[in-house]
Write a structure and sequence with these properties.
213 residues, alpha+beta, 2 domains, 5-stranded antiparallel beta sheet, 4-stranded antiparallel beta sheet, 11 strands, 26% strand, elongated, binds zinc ion, metal-binding, SWIM zinc finger family protein, zinc
């Protein structure tokens, strides 16, 4: 709450005229602020739209079309509070964007938003790697630089030897459903050789650890 009611009878505050004027006409902002803090539940639909549940009714919001099924929107064509709430919820990461769905991290199972049309294996922010990150191999202790995080499951990813990653004995302790992460060995780095020209190796995601010293 940013606005508190003015208490004209407050003993600490003399009843000045400007205080009473403020009490009669609250800032215009207060109305829209109240609208945005109003209790609404936003749920994504499978067709890119959202259901918004409020005390006053249940409406369907289409962000792509900028439309809502509420009377306010139908009558005035206004950008109603439901549309605004859905947009805010997407921005805040509370609900997936229209082109996303809720998936699970292959390492920890945490719900994470993934591209809707990508049925591959995904990682949460905590377990994902950015290309260029130096990581350690839990099996050998060697250091590598991540070049790509694929969405291919370890048991579907084919190595140069035409074997699946999950077939390798050294990967037995890691999930076959985890995405394959491609990396180059730090020891293979040469100032004159581009990263893309180096031999790339793939690992199930949790075999690599970002915490290297
Ligand atoms: Zn609406
Ligand atoms: Zn995770």
């Amino acid at each position: 709450m940013t606005h508190t009611r003015n208490t004209a009878a407050s003993p600490a505050e003399p009843n000045r005229s400007d205080t009473s004027r403020a009490a009669r006409s609250p800032p215009v902002d207060e109305r829209s602020e109240r609208a945005l803090s109003e209790s609404m539940t936003v749920r994504p639909l499978p067709d890119r739209r959202y259901v918004v549940d409020t005390d006053g009714g249940t409406y369907v919001v289409d962000l792509d079309a900028g439309s809502c099924t509420c009377p306010d929107h139908a009558i005035r064509g206004a950008r109603c509070k439901h549309l605004r709430r859905v947009a805010l919820s997407v921005t805040a990461g509370v609900v997936p964007a229209p082109d996303e769905r809720v998936g699970a991290c292959a390492v920890c199972g945490t719900a994470t938003f993934v591209p809707a049309d990508d049925r591959g294996s995904h990682l949460c922010d905590r377990h994902a790697f950015d290309p260029g990150t130096v990581v350690g191999d839990r099996e050998t202790g060697k250091r590598l630089v991540v070049t790509a995080v694929t969405t291919d499951r370890a048991d579907a990813y084919r190595t140069d030897a035409d074997r699946s990653l999950a077939d390798y004995e050294s990967n037995a302790a890691y999930g076959a459903h985890e995405p394959a992460v491609e990396a180059v060995y730090v020891e293979s780095l040469r100032p004159e050789t581009a990263l893309t020209d180096l031999k790339t190796y793939a690992f199930p995601a949790s075999r690599l650890t970002a915490s290297v010293d």
